[in-house]
Structures are given as C-alpha cells and as structure tokens.
Write a structure and sequence with these properties.
The chain has helices spanning 84-96, 148-156, 163-178, and strands spanning 6-15, 20-27, 33-40, 44-50, 55-63, 68-72, 75-77, 98-109, 120-130, 142-147. With 198 residues, the chain is of the alpha+beta class. The strands form three sheets. A four-stranded mixed sheet has the order 7-4-9-8, sandwiched between helices. A three-stranded antiparallel sheet has the order 1-2-3, with no helix packed on it. Strands 6-5-10 form a three-stranded antiparallel sheet. Helix 2 crosses helix 3.
C-alpha cells in the first residue's frame, strides 16, 4: 500500500489575493479515479508571548466567517517566501507591540487537512519590551493579557474555540510542566532558541 494519490487534472475556479480554489481529478492507489476539492493557502504563524508574570498576550477581533468576536493568540499569514519565525515576530509586534526574546519552536499544525494546504507554524517567547502596535487598515483588535493557567482553563472549558490557539496553549503548558523540550528538536536552519526555558 503506497498511500498516495496522483493528480490527473486541476480545474481552478477561483484565484484570489490569498486563496486558490480548485477541483482536481486524482488517481487512487487502487487505480480508480476520484475528485478532490482543495483550497490552497500560503500558510500562517501563531505566537505565544509570555510576560514575566507568566501571562499570555491575546488579541480579540471580529471573525467574519463565524460572525463573532474571537479570542486568539497573535497570528498572521505568511508572505511569499517569508520565514515563519520572522513572520511571527512581525505579527507579534504589529498586533501587540511586543518585542520577544528566547523564541522556541513548538512545531506546526494542519488546521483542516481534508481540504486545505494551510500549515500553521507555532512559536513561543518571552516578552522583552513593548512598544506601539501597527494594525492593518482593516484590523480592529483589542489586546488582553491572561495568566497561563487561566488560558489553559479557558481552552478546556471551550471558551477559546480557535484551533491554533488551543493547540499552542496546550503545547506550551506541556513544555513548561515537563521543563524539557517535550521532543521538540532544533532543525538545521531553524534559528529559534531551542535550548531556551520558558
């Protein structure tokens, strides 16, 4: 069993500024054909920034697809060719004004592998300093600080439904609890401080 599917054809029916929607005809491993509806996405990054008091910086903003205000950790879309860590640092500065230090990588996640190619890279850091925010013209954000233990409680009680925020909080909590790197290895070319303690 080779567990692969071969693309036979691709029918693009929308290509926007960020997303590409296409329906592909694929050959399955048993020789039959099927279709796959896909959304291509450039990927994203999310950052958990801890204060000296072990509080996390959050942003609260209106998310149109859900028609509600959502509590999230700072995050954003990768620009073409952008390093995920550098994108995370940029988003953290823009959304909260925080300059971080002692960055660690907490891996990546596939938010919905059934239909999108999006990958979200996860990082954590300590707050070094805080300056001005630089929101995009279409962003309206409220900044909040929540203690780490309270953030975990909010995840477990479903008060934070955002997937990337849930995963990042729980991975960071496990990292802190074990006081080891929880299997997170520094990869070649990764300029995060993999030996840091948060």
């Amino acid at each position: 069993m080779n567990m692969t599917e071969k693309t036979i054809s691709e029918d693009i029916f929308y290509k926007g500024k960020i997303l590409k929607f296409h329906v592909d005809k694929v050959k399955l491993e048993n020789g039959r054909t099927s279709t796959r509806e896909c959304v291509d996405h450039p990927g994203g990054v999310s950052i958990a920034a801890l204060t000296a008091e072990n509080e996390l910086y959050f942003v609260r903003q209106y998310r149109y697809p859900y028609h509600e205000t959502v509590l999230e950790l700072p995050a954003g879309k990768l620009e073409k060719g952008e390093n995920p860590l550098e994108a995370g640092k940029r988003e953290l500065r823009e959304e909260t004004g925080v300059e971080g230090e002692s960055y660690i990588s907490l891996g990546k996640l596939y938010p919905s592998p059934g239909y999108t190619s999006e990958v979200i890279w996860l990082y954590a850091c300590r707050e070094k300093s805080r300056g001005d925010t630089h929101f995009d013209t279409d962003e309206f954000i409220k900044i909040e600080k929540i203690p780490m233990k309270e953030a975990v409680r909010k995840v477990l009680s479903n008060e934070i439904p955002d997937a990337k925020t849930q995963i990042l909080i729980l991975k960071l909590a496990a990292y802190q609890k074990n006081s080891t790197e929880c299997g997170v290895q520094r990869k070649q070319g990764d300029n995060t401080a993999a030996g840091s303690r948060l």
